[in-house]
Amino acid sequence: MAALQKLPHCRKLVLLCFLLATLWEARAGQIRYSVPEEIDRGSFVGNIAKDLGLEPLALAERGVRIVSRGRTQLFALNPRSGSLVTASRIDREELCAQSAPCLLNFNILLEDKLTIYSVEVEITDINDNAPRFGVEELELKISETTTPGFRIPLKNAHDADVGENALQKYALNLNDHFSLDVRSGVDGNKYPELVLERALDREEEAVHHLVLVASDGGDPVLSGTSRICVKVLDVNDNAPVFTQPEYRISVPENTPVDTRILTVTATDADEGYNAQVAYFLEKSPGETSEVFELKSTSGDLTIIKDLDYEDATFHEIDIEAQDGPGLLTRTKVIITVLDVNDNAPEFYITSATSSVSEDSPPGTVIGLFNVHDRDSGQNAFITCSLPENLPFKLEKSVDNYYRLVTTRALDREQFSFYNITLTAKDGGNPSLSTDAHVLLQVADINDNAPAFSRTSYSAYIPENNPRGASVFSVTAHDPDSNDNAHLTYSFAEDTVQGAPLSSYISINSDTGVLYALRSFDYEQFRDLQLWVMARDSGNPPLSSNVSLNLFVLDQNDNAPEILYPAIPTEMVPPAELALKPKQSPRHLVTKVVAVDRDSQNAWLSYHLLKASEPGLFKVGCTRAVRAHQRSPAGQRRQSSSQAGPRPRQPSLRHCHATPGRQDPPTSWPIWAASSPPPNPTIRTSLCTWWWRLGGSLRPGLCHRAAGARLLAQVTPDAGFRRQLEACPARDFVAEWGAGFPG
């Protein structure tokens, strides 16, 4: 670079090469550009948008970016203009050394469709390196007996540039005894040799000073020099000779340091001091001298630094053998580094998402990544895999790119999070592997309706409850998350039995607790069937309904009421009953009819409170008033009876028994039905019923228990006899033909 700064005409060459950089070609999905080295940062390389046939704005929208692997980013892409520019200084010699052409490859990624385009940029050489010799001054010793035509190999120069900018020629300053001959080796390099043109005479001139100039073919031409000091000696007329013209060996890259890998040998036909041979590594600008060491006395070549196949697959070493007076010969050692499987595959995640919706269709791309192994051959053959039983698979693309895609629909309620392990395994023996982890969150959608803990609910509330009392609580669960699982409770219907539901009961929308808005009366309202709805907060929301049967429990809040005999008033005298004279005991005088509006609290017992003649009449639990003793003829007797359970105020009626009257009236203020309706409603209570059959009063018991109403026949003393048939819906009494015993 110092030589470049001294030559102003070099900038013209840079400009010319820069103009040629606009040449590109695109074939088989690859875009190619050419750009000279050492141009300024931000210099234009090419227009990606134009070469892809896209509008510049489309690149930014599609998420265009450069994807490179394992190298400092040398180029930058403007996503708005589509221009590819240099991102830093580019030194071709640092990147490619003597390799030509120098090609840099990277990929352009369009993230919207995860499309990869290959880009190849050729870095063209400029003449920024002058030829350099390994030593600035070379000392040669030649016997004065050496005949003209004798050749002495000289130290050759090295030029880091390539092509025309590389080393092209050598020149020697004018003198009377020596000329320069340049030979081309099989490797393409030029090797200078000093040719003795005229016999030497040490006594005439003991030392000859020469200047060797190495020049390249650049414009302007750059050159380097080496001073040669030729000392004229006596008699040493043989140079050392190597046993092989060239040495080739292969060494595994894991060979330990300090291992001897080769011994070179050279012989000299001279004797004594003139035949003493020493070995030297020819100094070069590369790293070869830092990797290997040559023992000057034995010719042993050893490794002094770890080899790395991935950094250099071979090493080329020039070894010199020099005898005592200074004659030397040169040979080449080519060391091939053998690859061993010492590098595990590497992952490069190009693009990956951290969250995916659970309703994403199969084939949804989760991520794009690249795998690479720095080894070679079978050691670099990579296979990628996933754990089994995961809803994902790997799809291989070009250039060891893989796409991670879904294979089936995801269910967040089953798995809300995946830690996906990607395994890359090479083909070495033993093989090496690397794991990479992709953390994926499954986003919830509202795909689950709320579910109640039971299919239906039954609740019970005693009548006369206070307003605002908590009645019941329902609970639903939604397996979704966040708003999709936030539930509100409400009634599915606004009315019940034709009346507004809001006048009976309310529900807390957050907790599902039901509250009574009124005090219920069992005798007016015995049950309430509701539909409770739980709705989530998703979009759109989902809901579920459940039925709730609310039963009002009876309290003993009604006193019995005697229907017959009629209540005495100013207009209605007490009932008078006629008895035949000398009527026998247990003769039925009359039947007292009483009712209680309560349910299980409606079991009634009957008692005579007072009588004008105690002991003459008796009333049984079946409401029948009978003669207890034989009644004297023609006497009028008066008695009062009561009916009702003990906790409540009894109901009183007065009647007169008069001998000579027979049957009670045939008109009774009670319920009657000719036949029961089908499918009787289930109730849980006890009730006593009376009905009429052919003008005669029949007793019975309707027992609402165990899911059915049972109608049973009773004896005059209210003893339970047997079940006769199912009791129908409330306020109905079935009839049967059995007469009242007695």
UniProtKB/TrEMBL annotation:
UniProt domain Cadherin: residue ranges: 75-133, 134-242, 243-347, 348-452, 453-562
Q: Which InterPro entries match?
A: Cadherin-like_dom, Cadherin-like_sf, Cadherin_CS, Cadherin_N, Protocadherin/Cadherin-CA
Q: Which UniProt keywords apply?
A: Calcium, Cell adhesion, Glycoprotein, Membrane, Repeat, Signal, Transmembrane, Transmembrane helix
This chain's function reads: Potential calcium-dependent cell-adhesion protein. May be involved in the establishment and maintenance of specific neuronal connections in the brain.
| Disordered: annotated segments | 627-675
Q: What is its main location?
A: membrane
Q: Which residues cross the membrane?
A: none
GO cellular component term, pick one: plasma membrane
Listed SUPFAM superfamilies: Cadherin-like
Q: Which organism is it from?
A: Papio anubis
Which GO terms fall under biological process for this protein?
homophilic cell adhesion via plasma membrane adhesion molecules; nervous system development
Quote the Gene3D superfamilies the UniProt record gives: Cadherins
* Coiled-coil annotated residue ranges, if any: none
Composition bias, kind Low complexity: at what positions? 664-674
A Pfam family that this protein carries is Cadherin
The membrane topology of this protein is:
Single-pass type I membrane protein
Give the signal peptide as a residue range, or say none if absent.
1-28
Q: Which GO terms describe its molecular function?
A: calcium ion binding
The subcellular location is: Membrane
**Keyword Acyltransferase recorded:** no
**What gene is behind this protein?**
PCDHGA2
What's this protein's name? Protocadherin gamma subfamily A, 2
